[in-house]
Amino acid sequence: MVAVPQRSDQSTSDHSRTASAPAFATDEQRWQAVVRRDRAADRVFYYSVATTGVYCRPSCAARLARRENVRFHASCADAERAGFRPCKRCRPNEAGTTDRQAAMVAAACREIEEADEPPTLEHLAETAGMSRFHFHRVFKALTGVTPKAYADAHRAKRVRDALTQTATVTEAIYDAGFNSNGRFYAASSGLLGMTPTAYRNGAPGAEIRFAVGECWLGSILVAATDKGVCAILLGDNPDALVRDLQDRFPKARLIGGDASFEALVAKVVGFLEAPGSGGDLPLDVRGTAFQQRVWKALREIPAGSTATYAEIAQRIGQPKSVRAVAQACGANPVAVAIPCHRVVRTDGGLSGYRWGVERKRALLARERR
After folding, report:
1. Residue 179 — very low, low, confident or very high, per pLDDT cuts 50/70/90?
2. E-strand spans in the chain?
3. Can 60 be counted among the known catalytic residues?
């Protein structure tokens, strides 16, 4: 089942956000967040003002207090134990608008996944108590995709799973929730990018260009379809990289890159040389709706910065899905372009990296410079 945003209780979120936000590790960093009313710091920490006796979210719109009167707290409970009461303006002890919207989107995602036919936008918006426009905007902001794209991604996953697990295409059609062959075949090209029979047979005839070269991280393999880069693999053994590509696309037609393809490879190598300079590589990466949301969040981490697995889980609205985030990072097929190397453990440790922890350490060091 496609993963959806989930809510956690206040205390759990306080702990997760505090543990996963090295950007606010010092009082000076916290104060600067208060000065700029940084919403990213909300629920990472709270601040109190001695002269008013209240505590607030960092993004509170109240008049800025004098620095000497401000103290910082890890949670609402910490602030209240210190004798402060919640601000009536920003209501730091209550679920914020983002939490309420996350719960609403989670419910909509579950309805989409459980329905035989994708619910209409009008129905989803009415259930959420919003206008069509507002619901559409909130849903896309929290999931990274529109309601229709989410429904299409979920149905595509059901189709792919059914085609690999059933004896016939017809059986797969009905297992995936389609009520007729005609409706399925009308949608199959958009869902699979090919005919269902071709998908069952491992996409024979699909063309993927590739080339192997050397870069400062060792051997590199770059592969692309006509839509964009589908693999950037790193390693020490060029032959092993080619075998990896063959395993990923067992029945595709692999073609050695020509002169025009070498220009794309050069662009990728240049991007690896200066990871903060680009990021505009055309990509053709396919994954579940959850993986796509994680990968989108990874691409929003600035070069030279890091985020924890817990923080990424928070950003996509699923604070309890830390392990699933780590698995999505491990499934990333395009090194550096989707910068899973910028994700670290809560304690700052580098954790694993499918292309080697030393490469991860080297990439982070180069980006910081």
Report:
1. very low
2. 46-49, 54-56, 70-73, 85-86, 207-215, 218-224, 229-235, 253-256, 307-308, 343-344
3. no
Contact of 94 with 110, CB cutoff 8 Å: no
| 3 membership: H or E segment, kind and range | none
State the catalytic residue, choosing from 76, 109, 329, 340.
340
Provide the token pair at 70: 């401000």
Q: C-alpha distances in angstroms, 177 versus 104, 116, 156, 158, 183?
A: 24, 5, 11, 8, 11
Q: Please give the order of strands across the beta sheet that includes 218-224.
A: 229-235, 218-224, 207-215, 253-256
Token pair 């062959």 is found at 181
Asked if 150 contacts 136 with a C-beta cutoff of 8 angstroms, the reply is no
CA 118/CA 178 separation, integer angstroms:
11
Question: What residues form DSSP beta bridges with 283?
Answer: 229
Residue 68 Cα to chain centre, angstroms: 39
Q: Give pLDDT, residue 71.
A: 96
Q: What pTM, to 2 d.p., does this model score? A: 0.50
Residues 178, 171: contact at Cβ < 8 Å?
Answer: no
Angle at 43 between CA 41 and CA 44, to 5 degrees: 55
Active site residue 87: no
Instruction: Read off the pLDDT of each residue in 110-121 and give the average, rounded to a whole number.
Output: 82
Does 167 have pLDDT greater than 50?
no
Tell whether the model's pLDDT for residue 9 goes beyond 50. Answer: no
Higher-confidence position of 96 and 237 = 237
205 is written with which tokens? Answer: 């005839």
Q: Write down the catalytic residue from 56, 60, 87, 230.
A: 56
